[in-house]
Every structure is written in structure tokens, then in C-alpha cells.
Amino acid sequence: MQGVPPNSNTCQLCGAAEETVTHLFLDCPFLLRVWRSGPWPLDLSALGLQSMVDWIKLLLNPITAHNVNPDDEHAFVVYAVIVMDSLWFARNQKVHHNTSADPNVIFQSIQRCYK
Fold it and tell me: Which positions fall inside the Reverse transcriptase zinc-binding domain (predicted)?
């Protein structure tokens, strides 16, 4: 495949760790920067999420898990899905087309989708 580095397990967004689902969606410094810029500035590293199961539980119950206002619960879930989709898209663009990933550009894209 074009742009796929041979035998590379390194995160395509931060280049600092092994790319796993947990790293990509919970631990990646690139992702953490994007989350801190949003309308719900989450510090995922402070939430103690150990797995994608923990993250999904938070998404299914953001009111208790992260003190999201009940009126904002649906909006929070939609925003979280947009963030995850945008991150996955940026990762795939890097892998398949060798495009650079800029957290500010990703954040602007998320904002356009969210509005």
C-alpha cells in the first residue's frame, strides 16, 4: 500500500509510542491536545481510563463520568464521535498519503463538523 511504512508499529500521529487502539484514542499526545481545545476540555490522562471499554462507558454515561450537564449529554457524545472519526481520518491520511497531521488543522475540521 502506498505510504504505509514497512513493519512500523509507531504511532503515525505522534511518532512517540507504539500505535495501539488505546494509545491512538486515549493516550496519544496529539489526541490529548485536540481534546483540551474543545468545548469540553477533557484531560483524558487525568480520567484514569485504562481501556477502550472505560472510554465507551464514559461516552455512554458522560453525566456521571465527567460531570457533563444533562442538557449537553447528546452534544458531548456527538462531539466525541467527531473527534475520534477526525483522528482516525488524520491517521489514515498520514499512513496512506503521507500527509502531515497538525492538531490545529484537525481541531478546525472538528469545529466545522460539529457546528
Answer: 7-35
Give CA–CA dist 9/94, Å, rounded: 14
Question: For 61-72, where are the alpha helices, taking DSSP H only?
Answer: 62-66
Could you tell me the maximum CA-CA distance found in the chain, to the nearest angstrom? 47
Q: How many residues does the chain have?
A: 115
Mean pLDDT, rounded, for 101-110: 89
- Say how far apart CA 32 and CA 26 lie, in whole Å: 8
pLDDT tens column, 53-63:
998 988 888 87
- Measured CA to CA, the distance from residue 77 to residue 84 in angstroms comes to 11
Cα separation, 69 vs 62, whole angstroms: 9
Say if residue 92's pLDDT is above 70.
yes
